[in-house]
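Input record, target 12 of the design panel.
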């Protein structure tokens, strides 16, 4: 049941955020999201999730048969080119970096150059640090949990690099997954956050990661991100901002709905911030408080439940 709570948790949050994506914080303060909306930014019916959930489902679907980078890449390509794991049979929302990366994956697969999939992380263009790998990374937790952190990072970076190769994106994913791992083990959010900070700082000291990159995460790892005021939290599509905003929302609320709606009402990249929050919130709180009609409106609900049941068997 916990996996179902996670998968519905992030896709429902995604669907709540989709209709107001790109709206400003000021606009949403005048008309905050408090229930499931329809249409809006993309003209989609209520319960429609975005590429965030689609790619997370693709990853989870692949991991049901073990860790296979070629298969994960293939499922990402099938999502874009064959509408696999789309809510209504078409891709309606995709970031520029993800789009170009998917076509790169297509070309590598066409040439059967599978070895190059593991080399993508050496493309260190800082402009690739959107939040497109963070938004879909949560299913990987259940393959890497319990492994030594250096081994975890190897897998995290490989998966992140399929679309977002820069080490900054991989670090953001690792921080998020380490926090999620401790939450999954039963720690409270605040204790999981404190433990994650300690573990990640030790990892930095023992790894060859530049001081420049390490310093970028100081607001999370040196300070307490949840103590910042809302006007110090940014909610655009930059991976570091999405990670900060997501942790801030989770650590400043006490329920699934409060955390997800807070994420959405920060504005801008509403669906992605909510998705990153929603998976962990669903894991931690469950979904009992969520109106049943919201869940019943969720696109492909039965498919999500079926995937949850298959995925449960691997953990």
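The sequence produced for target 12 reads:
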């Amino acid at each position: 049941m916990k996996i179902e709570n996670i998968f519905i948790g992030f896709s429902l949050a995604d669907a709540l955020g989709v209709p107001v994506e790109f709206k400003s914080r000021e606009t949403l303060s005048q008309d905050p999201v408090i229930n499931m909306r329809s249409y809006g930014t993309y003209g989609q019916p209520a319960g429609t999730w975005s590429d965030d959930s689609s790619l997370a489902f693709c990853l989870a679907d692949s991991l049901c048969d073990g860790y296979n980078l070629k298969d994960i890449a293939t499922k990402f390509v099938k999502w874009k080119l064959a509408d696999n794991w789309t809510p209504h049979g078409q891709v309606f929302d995709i970031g520029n970096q993800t789009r170009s990366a998917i076509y790169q994956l297509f070309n590598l697969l066409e040439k059967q150059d599978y070895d190059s999939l593991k080399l993508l992380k050496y493309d260190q263009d800082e402009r690739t640090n959107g939040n497109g790998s963070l938004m879909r990374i949560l299913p990987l937790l259940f393959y890497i949990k319990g492994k030594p952190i250096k081994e975890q990072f190897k897998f995290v970076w490989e998966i992140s690099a399929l679309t977002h190769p820069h080490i900054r994106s991989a670090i953001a994913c690792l921080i998020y997954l380490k926090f999620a791992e401790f939450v999954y083990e039963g720690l409270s959010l605040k204790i999981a956050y404190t433990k994650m900070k300690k573990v990640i700082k030790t990892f930095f000291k023992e790894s060859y990661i530049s001081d420049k990159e390490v310093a970028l995460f100081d607001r999370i790892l040196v300070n307490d991100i949840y103590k910042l005021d809302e006007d110090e939290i940014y909610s655009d599509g930059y991976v570091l901002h999405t990670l900060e905003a997501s942790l801030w929302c989770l650590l400043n609320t006490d329920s699934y709905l409060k955390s997800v709606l807070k994420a959405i009402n920060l504005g801008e990249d509403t669906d992605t911030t909510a998705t990153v929050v929603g998976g962990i919130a669903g894991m931690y709180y469950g979904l009992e408080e969520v109106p049943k009609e919201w869940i019943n409106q969720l696109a492909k609900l039965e498919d999500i439940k079926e995937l949850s049941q298959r995925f449960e068997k691997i953990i």
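The domain at 2-312 is CATH 1.10.4080.10 (ADP-ribosylglycohydrolase fold).
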